[in-house]
Sequence to fold (492 residues):
Amino acid sequence: MADGQGVKAMEADTSPRKPPQMGLKLVHLDLKGAPPKVSYLAEIFPLFEHLGANGILLEYEDMFPYEGKLQALRSPNAYGPSDIRDVINLARLHNFEVIPLVQTFGHMEFVLKHETFSHLREVKTFPNSLNPHKKESMELVKSMIDQIMAIHKDLKWVHIGSDEVYYLGEGEESKQLIEQSKTNVDSLFLSHVQTVASYIINTHPDVKPIMWDDLLRNISEDKLKESRLDQLVQPMIWDYNANLDVYKMMLQIQKYQRTGFSQIWFASAFKGATGAAQSLTSISYHLANHLQWLKVAEALPRDSIQLQGIALTGWQRYDHFSVLCELLPVGIPSLAVCLQTLRNGMFSEKEEDFVKRCLGFKTLRINFLSIEDAGNFPGSEILNRVTQIITWLQESVDKLLEENIYIKGWFSTYHRKRKFVHPIIIRHFEGEVRGVHANWEAAISELRTALERIYYPDTVEEWLEEHVNPALTRLQQFVRDMDEALSSENLK
Fold:
């Protein structure tokens, strides 16, 4: 282990014991950002299974091949129906439970950004949340559900989202009803979720809806009991913090238990939960989160509440409009550590050795992997190059252009603009500049090739534009200025 710390510092109780039963262990694939090609899923599903996963939570958003009036929702690179069937067949091959996730209330940006559906916004200027008062809103949700259910056969569960329904109650229709004391925000939320869940149960009696729990947390026990929501949905309780408060979590679970819920889910995170623009994954942070969830699982009253499973979320964007966070291959070492922790109830040297063998690592650093930690798993070349670029590109260009005394003193921005330089000065930095430039051009070319194998062109361009181009463009321009100065009259 790195940083002078062994794995024992991250263990829970290492005495022999039976690990708590966690139910299904779902790997969350957030397709609203950097959706991988199906060919890459075929490469990593065997690895997921080997590491201990037995299900996938598929958050499609705009990658689902919606038809008819919903066709506008498709991303230009949306999966086709045959792609979806391939993913489902791959999942079955590896004994995965498949749970599709369709947004039905909040996080509806991928729908409500389109002019065709903009009139269904709760607040006219914000595309976040659906207006629950309009008949067309429910027709839209039903159509989305119908199309997803039509291609997914033999489902046991479907996730209906329903988290972070921002600005609910702030639309004109909601405001009027609230001012007239005919409703409140909690009632608006519960009513819509009841309608969505009831539709699924009525049309697909064997399928149970799952929902995120965050908007249930502050609803009173009496109101939750009155809603009889426990007869319609199973809450997925999420907390991604390394310092998850076990005591407070148990109080929340007890509240759900008292209001009738007998089947629950957990949701942790293996990546994508430490910053909207995070590029490298801190394994130690997510390991700590999973160790806390194990403590919660151990404390559950098994005679009165059933843990159906845990979704290891891997967010790729915080929302439809945000930047990409850690790419999936970058987060796979963290996923491996977290799955093994859940499987064995701890993370000790035994689990560490297993992960290293699976991923081809000689060492495993649980804070941030370094470029010396070259693994050998599908996508490892992306992990290695991303780590190199995020760690060194900006720093090396800054150091070269801002700390070299000859560049600062004799080839400043002023000199470069006028192509004015003492002939002998360029000799003091030309070799270093060309060497740095050539090395980064080669590394970035290798990364682009690796990204293009796994991702669609828009993902490749977005990642490079965000993380490579600012520093590389600056370096490229400097090389051009240097070449022009070398060819100018004063150096002849």
Observations:
- Confidence is low (pLDDT under 50) at residues 1-16.
- The first helix runs from residue 38 to 51.
- The chain has two domains: 7-372, 383-491.
